Amino acid sequence: MSEKLTSKQLLGQLTAKHYNDAIVGKQNGELVAWSTSIAPQEFCETMGIHVIYPENHAAAIGAKGGAIPILEHSEANGYSIDLCSYARINLGYMELQDCCFENVPLPDLIICCNNICNTLIKWYENIAKELNIPMIMIDVPYNTEYEVTQPRVNYIKGQFKEAIRQLEEICGRPFDYDRFDEIMKNSSRAAKSWKRAMDYAAYVPSPLNGFNIFNYMALIVCMRGKEESIQLFDLIAEELEELARNGESQFPGGEQYRIMWEGIACWPYLGHNFKTLKKYGVNMVGSTYPGAWTLLYEAGDLNGMARAYAGVMNNTNLARQVELRTSIIKDFKCDGAIYHMNRSCKLMDFMQYQLQREVADRTGVPYVVFDGDQTDPRNFAQAQFETRVQALVEMMERNKINKKSM
Amino acid sequence: MEKINAIIAEMNTVVSSPKKAVSAFKEETGKEAVGCLPVYCPEEIVHAAGILPVGMWGGQTALSKSHTYFPAFACSILQSAMEFALNGVYDNLAAVIIPAPCDTLKSFGQDWISAAPQVRSIPIVYPQMSRIEEGVEYLKSEFEIVKKAMEEISGETITDEALNNSIAVYNEYRKTMREFVKAAAEHLEIITPAIRHLLIKAAFFMEKGKHTSMMKELISELKAQPKVEYKGKKVVLTGIMAEPDSLLDLFAQNNMAVVADDLAHESRLFRTDVPDGEDGLERLARQWPLMEGCSLIYDPQKKRGQMLIDIVRENRADGVVLCMMKFCDPEEFDYPIFRKELEAAGIPLLYLEIDQQMPSAEQARTRIQSFAEMLDSM
Ligand code: SF4
Ligand code: SF4
């Protein structure tokens, strides 16, 4: 009998398989698409197209320390150093096709959904132009209203139709609606089991080491429509359940403080960031990641699917974003918050100051901000990060003492 | 020439104090004014309500309060606009219309709600997939919201007739401006880069019908002038906007004239007419899919490069000057693509950084000088 795999092992296997399938598939003449991280993968999955997620790929390159030469290549091509570093890495990789991580194949088509930012539209236009390949665009208008309005839903559904039409043309065969239904079911199940696993962070102490979310994420980004991802998320949940039952945790050394982390990780400094937090017993239990891919809708319900993709956190208005952070801090019982002022991401940065003020007003929880970048190592200073974490810990400590003396 | 100078002087008065121009309009007409953030805005709807649409493209100012909303790496248009908003500069506007074509404007619209709660904001999100019918329908629904807001502000319903009339006024304005651009190219000795910019910019603070009739007069005066062969070099400007004036003066000082432009602040606003039809809102919505070559409008074929090449050839220009608004993502993504295409077509390109907070254009001086020398040597 084979030993049961741990979630870590399974994650490694599945990630490798995900990339390998695309590489081998391409060699066998199968279609490969590149896609934005929260685009409706259901369509390509239905058509059996391999999908690579450049944001995930760029993050992995960053985490493995291979960003600089690729960034420099893009900059030499005229890409401003002020642009999102994921874009600069991907557009550089597109030419070099060589990196310290998986050398993924170039796409035959791309699919872009701007529910996380409009930067993606420009970035993907450039891929389409440079490689002369078709681009499927799912434009989800920014939700200036609290809810996703019906005219927006109708417009998005119109684009689903158009995407299907384009895919039928690209693949040269009709869209399989039965399979589509199946994929929609899987995707919803995966979303639920992802959320269930990540919600273990609400336990005090949390059995989940929050920084592990940054690893698990690879699968919810890359394999949301696949059965295997459900297996992984269920396995993670099982392990966390077991740890919780025994009063244990993945987080080493004991949890002293619980914080919310706002924004993307600094991939090149993941280890440093984690160590700095661990030193003070700070566990990141609250983050927007668990929710970001929790795309819930009923199979067959295109209205619901449109609403789910349009209602992604980055695409909601500030009032709703404030509410989301407020409830994360409350539900996950956070003592403080760290905000990443990410040099790459204008969308996440330019509402952030007001977000910080409103969330602090509502929760009374202290926060600090640090300057960083998700994958450009030149835009992050370790010393500043350490000082900010220290300041936060002092504030959280003071709050604890005050609470006790009350 | 006297007439031309008089028109230039009048427009100069408007542009040097938009605030006065807005107050004068409000006093004369008893109607309100509404601000329009860049780039595209359904001004016809505003106009149909008798309201003055006012362009809000930032301006030169020292930044201090804007830092409570934006870190340093936001484009200077919106940094300035935020600074102005926080200082109450826009308080004489009944509302502002804020589109969301880029991430910075999306954020700006949300920040406005707490930064300037005294001025109502009306968001509008244009579709990127307007070539499908559902995109047109959706855009129409966005326009409905703007229409309703304008009716609330003016206290009157906007009839279809009024809207169609306003569309006619705007189409006439567009046509006239295209004519102006052509006429100006024939008289570069009179229409210097700064004057050209001034005349186009004045439309942001004037009722369009009034601006149009002044421009028509100017065009016929221009046409009556004797033809003079321009001795200097001719360039095409591309980008979001070309300011401050001191920058434009550098072109003149180096014997360069602006023969055409592809600026969001200028030609992109009047190169596409609103198509014919009956329902005013639908007509406006159908204009959108006709527009192209702009960094803020979805285009996987990236036609902008070829468009620039065509503009250069049609106008027998000597080169292109990219006025790169610092920290503007959409423009920064377009650049590497059209740079390659211009290079392949053998068209010289100058990259100039635009920053509204730039205290002087000194940095650009040497770059413009050497570009002029390079063109001379060709
Ligand atoms: S980091 Fe920000 S700008 Fe870059 S792709 Fe993600 S959401 Fe868009
Ligand atoms: S200049 Fe660029 S970044 Fe700034 S508002 Fe305009 S389009 Fe957006």
Describe this structure in words.
The complex is a heterodimer of chains A (406) and B (378). Chain A is built from 17 helices and eight strands. In chain A, helix 7 (150-171) crosses helix 13. In chain A, the strands form two sheets. In chain A, strands 2-1-3-4 form a four-stranded parallel sheet. In chain A, strands 6-5-7-8 form a four-stranded parallel sheet, sandwiched between helices. With 406 residues, chain A is an alpha/beta fold. Chain B is globular. Helix content of chain B is 51%, strand content 12%. Chain B has a single domain (18-169, 233-378), classed as Rossmann fold (3-Layer(aba) Sandwich), CATH 3.40.50.11900. With 378 residues, chain B is α/β, with parallel strands linked by helices. The model of chain B has no long low-confidence stretch (mean pLDDT 97). In chain B, 54% of the residues are buried. In chain B, the strands form two sheets. A four-stranded parallel sheet of chain B has the order 2-1-3-4, sandwiched between helices. Classes of the chains: A alpha/beta (406), B alpha/beta (378). Chains A and B meet through helix 6, strand 4, helix 7, helix 15 and helix 16 of A and helix 5, helix 6 and helix 13 of B. The complex binds iron/sulfur cluster (2 copies).
Name the poorly predicted regions of chain B.
none
State the end-to-end distance of chain A.
57 Å
Instruction: Return Rg of chain A in Å.
Output: 21 Å
In total, the number of strands of chain A is 8
What is the arithmetic mean of pLDDT of chain B? 97
Query: What overall form of chain A do the CA principal axes indicate?
Result: globular
Return residue spans of chain A where pLDDT drops below 50 for at least 5 consecutive residues. none
The portion of residues assigned to helices of chain B is: 40-55%
Structural class of chain A: alpha/beta
